[in-house]
Amino acid sequence: MQVLGEMIAVSARAGRTTMLWFVLLVATKAVSVALIGLTQRWLVDNAIADITRGIVAAAALGAVAHAALSVSAQLEVHLRDDISDRAEVIINHDILAATSAVPTIEHLERPDYLDRLAMLRSGGASGTRALAVSTQVLAQTAASVLSLSLSIWLLAGVHPALALLALAGAAPLVLGNRANRLVRRAMDATSGLARREQALHDLCVQPVPGKEIRTAGSGPELSRRARTTWDAAMRTEVGARWRAAAWRFAGWTVFTAGFTAAVGVVAALAVDGRASAGDIILIITLASRLREQITSTMFGIVRLAEAGRITDHYRWLKTYAAAHPTGGDAAPERLTDGITMTGIGFTYPGSGAPTLTGIDLHLPPGAVVAVVGVNGAGKTTLVKLLTGLYTPTSGSITVDGRPLATIDPARWAAVATGAFQDFAKPQLPAGETVGIGDLPRLHDSAAIRTAVEQAGATEIIAALPNGAATQLGRHFDGAELAHGQWQKLALARALMRQRPLLRVLDEPTAALDPQAEHDLFERFTTHTRAAAETGTVTLLISHRFSTVHMADHIVVLSHGTILEQGSHADLLATGGEYAKLYTMQAAAYAP
Ligand SMILES: Nc1ncnc2c1ncn2[C@@H]1O[C@H](COP(=O)(O)OP(=O)(O)OP(=O)(O)O)[C@@H](O)[C@H]1O
Questions:
Q1: What is the rounded average pLDDT for all residues in the chain?
Q2: Residue 353, exposed/middle/buried by CB under 10 A (0-12, 13-18, 19+)?
Q3: pLDDT digit string (tens) for 43-100?
Q4: Pocket residues for ligand 1 (CB within 6 Å)?
Q5: Ligand 1: which atom is nearest the Cα of residue 377?
Q6: Mutation to probe ligand 1, out of 104, 113, 355 (largest number of atoms < 8 A from CB)
Q7: Fewest beta carbons less than 10 Å away: which of 3, 11, 404, 554?
Q8: 3-state DSSP of 396-438
Q9: Which atom of ligand 1 is nearest to the CA of 351?
Q10: Separation of 330 CA from ligand 1 center, angstroms?
Q11: What positions does the domain ABC transporter occupy (predicted)?
Q12: What distance in Å separates the CA atoms of residue 506 and residue 559, rounded to the nearest whole number?
């Protein structure tokens, strides 16, 4: 019932008046078929009885019924598509809003969420279109049922046994429904495989991974895996389709047997003189239309079932978003006490082992804190918790003594900024690529210039044919940049907010050479200390110790726990893990 309510609500939002006109049209079409059968009977009976006025009236009424049928059939398609197009825009907007409304990114890494999103976005009749057209299909199906019922009622008027055609007619509906359920279940069961195949396919055909795949010569193996995955999905789907076809065939066999029997009954009645010539015409007209009426009813039910499935995913997404309410307190304007993590533990959803355990860490205001550790130690995960992209499984994070959980995620995001190792390459004009780092100043060219300068990207913009106005990226025939140049722009984006409370730099310079990284961080730390009145905490993750040693405080992570922490000098003096790694790297870089 809720699914039905959701379908109707979407169409009402797309156009209430157009929808009412549409319902009126399909009802007219449904009644026209019965009227055509009746007028033909009157016409024939009046012609045999030689009643001129009756012939004229039946012919006129028949002509009106035919005209109503063809006009409503034409307009029906136009109105249905018009409402569906508008509804589809609304649905897509809702999906995007529901996806981006969730302040954490957990859902974007959850397979069940991605499966539902993939099914919704699959396009065509099995995606959002199915929902967009659902109310119109509902009205059309109701009209088909009405038309079918009128036909059966008229048939029963000639002889009650002819009403049994309804039973025969129900067979394709019932068995067809069973067939559709089979196919639907198979499609749901294979959506994960389809996503896996798509991921393998993308690896082979997209330019960035394609380079690596071709050099390694792993293309044939990946294609083989994609094919195996595809075959497995297809086997399940094709098997289900064959079984569904068998059920449909059985349904139509029952109907054909019933139709043959009905023709036999009418022939016997005519021989006995209990049926008029008009009755015979009526029976033939209606019975021949029965097949079309049953087909459209069945087709309508299939599409409604599909729409129900899609509506269910759509409602799930909206409920998921609603379960992550936004709102909360304002973030402080400046930090006086800093950010504190107490007893933090974190396990990724669906993962058995914790990634972080027992993290106790104080990030003082105005400090530059570096986090080091081997790959997989949990550095990025720590950043995800501090920026609010994930919620800790245990423990608490406080900002100037206030729990981060009570601060509005959107307002916390507005005072945090970050540059990440897996940075985005927004294909926008160069200035906007940087400006989106602080939306209110998207077109503030002075602010953009400053951020670009601090990120050491001035020369990159200057070399573009139209400077900051140059469209970037190949998707839109724009200028393409080198990977490291894109990374510098990502860094500039993170610098758009000049006075954040938290600035996260998660290996944002991995594509730069060590000297460039060193110079950049020197500028950064100077800048952060200059902005001391805001108390900005800068959290820096880097594998390069020549950069790390500039930090005020260094945290060494290992297997999700803090191994040691202190200043560069303290840690060297302790002679622990940090001292070992630092000495090793210094020796490797020594001339
Ligand atoms: N989305 C995720 N779902 C499940 N596990 C994850 C996810 N992201 C990371 N992990 C796991 O968490 C652990 C820590 O990952 P994290 O990215 O925090 O490490 P890191 O120290 O930043 O590593 P690197 O230096 O390579 O960037 C890894 O074992 C990784 O497999």
A1: 85
A2: exposed
A3: 988 888 888 888 899 999 999 999 998 898 889 889 988 998 998 889 888 888 887 7
A4: 109, 348, 351, 355, 373, 375-381
A5: 21
A6: 355
A7: 3
A8: EEEECCEEHHHECHHHHHHCEEEEECCCCCCCCEHHHHHHHHH
A9: 4
A10: 30
A11: 339-584
A12: 18
Which residue is closest in CA terms to ligand 1's atom 12? 355
What does the block give as tokens for 33?
């078929």
Measuring CA to CA, which residue among 269, 48, 260, 61 is closest to residue 158? Answer: 269
Q: What is the C-alpha separation between 390 and 393, in angstroms, rounded?
A: 9
- Look at residues 264, 267, 304, 299 and name the one whose alpha carbon lies nearest to residue 135: 304
Give me the sign of the Cα torsion angle 16, 20, 25, 31: positive
Bridge pairing between strands 402-403 and 368-372: unpaired
pLDDT in tens, 469-514: 999 987 778 888 888 889 889 989 988 988 889 998 888 776 666 7
pLDDT on residue 342: 95
Q: How much is the ipTM here?
A: 0.97
AA letter at 543? H
User: Counting beta carbons within 10 angstroms of the beta carbon of residue 130, is it exposed (0 to 12), middle (13 to 18) or buried (19 or more)?
Assistant: buried
Strands 502-506 and 416-420, by their bridges, are parallel
- Number of other CB atoms surrounding residue 259 within 10 Å: 17
Q: Which residue has the tokens 């307190």?
A: 329
